[in-house]
Amino acid sequence: MSEEASDADRFLALVAAAQGREIRLTSIQAGLLVAAELGIARDSRAFARLLGIAHSLVLRELNVLGEREGVLQIVKRDLRTMRVHYTLPPRGGA
Length: 94
Fold this sequence. Notes:
This protein is mainly α and 94 residues long. It is 55% helix and 10% strand.
């Protein structure tokens, strides 16, 4: 198995685990969270390009996540390109 295939399998397993923890997450939403956590993509266009899905779908799911308290923070919107930059909120704890 190639390294690229094993990376994809790992990503998909993490997406499935995120959905298992939070059943309200769609696969795209869980993918956005996992991508941010792993540093794979931190903006909507990069995520859409990496996964080969329409940017409009990513934007829709990203906006839903951005409306939920404490799930994801939208840090910048580029009105010209429609690119949305996002990050995970800081984790609490000691």
